[in-house]
Design brief:
With 414 residues, this protein is an alpha/beta fold. The protein has 2 domains: 29-194 and 221-265 and 289-328, 3-Layer(aba) Sandwich (Rossmann fold); 331-388, no CATH class. It has helices at residues 40-48, 57-66, 83-106, 124-138, 157-166, 179-189, 204-208, 240-243, 247-258, 305-318, 332-335, 349-359, 393-405, and strands spanning 29-30, 54-55, 71-76, 115-120, 145-150, 172-177, 201-202, 218-219, 225-226, 233-237, 260-261, 292-298, 321-326, 375-377, 383-385. Helix 3 crosses helix 4 and helix 6 (179-189) runs parallel beside helix 9 (247-258). It is globular.
């Protein structure tokens, strides 16, 4: 078998394993008893899509501390405790509340293409997993709130921008990405030439209620990083104890926040809130605060001096209330969590891998590979050979085993 004869592509898993590693009897708070109360669509998704009847301790604390506007948080909990939903639920609650307020004020749903938040993950594998969970959660709401993955492989920056420009309008879009891929995406938000991405026209009059005065065809508006009328722009940094130690990542975040704009007066109008600009002669007290709330999430973020210092500096610039949320280490729930790993000899790697996947198909698997000549094994368990490079016999055998033995299983992020 040769790599040239195989149509290689990155396979993305469209579901998350539903097998839980804890007993719900160790949890005390049903979703219906949350404070603040959750939207009905949120409760429905958690119980009927994710099959969770109760909130984990970190989810309860993060929802309580991060669901309102002008609130930011440092969220710490061990792996497997539900941190992903812990920041996704407050994020969705903010957007739904903002959309409902918009409907009451304008008597129509919000219709825009702006990016209202960014979720940063240290790796493309983790970004992919977060994207899957977020997309499943967002699909159950009455408002169109979409999540887009920008991983530089399956979804490149140019493709993400085209989807933003040509896609359906709604309450806003969130981008799930890595710092490296975000860096390649930022210049596209500063582009003044819209035709570089789209030559389609947008009939804004149909969506803004102006059809009574005759149709008016305009070119699709530029996409912005923008806060909404009722919710600040949201920045989530997952595994922040690892991500924020990089100076490059902090510089990318600073560049991103400089592009964030205030709420637009109305969709389809030419005027928009000015971008925050700071000149050299401007006094610190005269600088307008950023319309940004943030959450730094990780297993050791509360004990990281770097994260704490950066969070305090950022909260001062954003005029947001910062809370530190940490799970109790001696709770009955945490004592049930188990994270296991397996090390094996290189000669027995393939047989052990296939056995693990077939035996524990409903559980999450993380495989760490080293690069080999002419190819590298990526997190999607597909060998992407270098163009013009020599093929690798190990990767050929590996591809054969994956296709033959784990067809139909979750091999998008094995």
């Amino acid at each position: 078998m040769s790599l040239e004869g195989i149509n290689l592509k990155r396979v993305r898993r469209t579901w998350e394993p539903t097998t839980k590693s804890w007993d719900d009897r160790a949890l005390k708070t049903p979703w219906e008893d949350m404070d603040p109360p959750l939207d009905n669509a949120t409760v429905f998704a958690l119980k009927n899509v994710f099959f969770f009847s109760h909130a984990t301790p970190i989810q309860y604390l993060s929802i309580k501390s991060f669901s309102s506007n002008r609130q930011s948080a440092i969220i710490e909990a061990p792996t497997g405790s539900g941190k992903t939903l812990g920041f996704l639920i407050p994020l969705m609650e903010r957007m739904v509340q903002s959309a409902r307020e918009y409907v009451v004020k304008h008597e129509r749903p919000p219709l825009n293409r702006d990016v209202v938040g960014i979720i940063l993950s240290p790796s493309r594998t983790l970004a992919d997993q977060t994207f899957i969970v977020a997309k499943q959660l967002a699909a159950r709401y009455p408002f169109h709130i979409q999540f887009l993955l920008c991983d530089g492989v399956a979804e490149k920056a140019e493709g993400v921008m085209r989807r933003l420009l040509n896609g359906s309008r709604g309450a806003g879009s969130f981008i799930v990405t890595t710092p490296h891929d975000l860096k390649s995406l930022l210049p596209l938000f500063q582009t003044t030439e819209l035709d570089a991405f789209s030559k389609d026209t947008a009939d804004l009059s149909q969506q803004t209620g102006d059809t009574a005065h005759g149709k008016r065809t305009e070119r699709a508006e530029k996409v912005h990083l923008r806060a909404t009328e009722g919710a600040h722009f949201l920045l989530i940094v997952d595994e922040a104890d690892l991500t924020l130690h990089s100076t490059t990542t902090r510089e990318i975040i600073a560049e991103t926040l400089q592009l964030v704009e205030g709420p637009s007066p109305d969709v389809g109008k030419a005027e928009r809130a000015p971008r925050r600009k700071v000149s050299k002669g401007t006094k610190k007290s005269d600088v307008p605060p950023l319309a940004v709330d943030f959450a730094f999430v990780g297993a050791t973020v509360s004990t990281s001096p770097t994260v704490h210092q950066y969070a305090e500096e950022l909260s001062a610039k954003c005029s947001t209330q910062l809370a530190v949320v940490s799970d109790s280490r001696d709770s009955d729930y945490l004592l049930q969590l188990e994270n296991r790993y397996l090390a094996c000899d290189a000669q027995s790697f393939l047989s052990v891998l296939v056995q693990l996947i077939n035996t524990h198909a409903s559980k999450k698997h993380f495989n760490l590979f080293q690069q080999c000549s002419g190819a590298s094994l990526c997190s999607a368990t597909v060998c992407t050979a270098s163009r013009g490079g020599a093929s690798c016999s190990f990767c050929e055998v590996y591809l054969f085993h994956v296709r033959r033995h784990v067809r139909g299983h979750a091999h998008g992020s094995v």
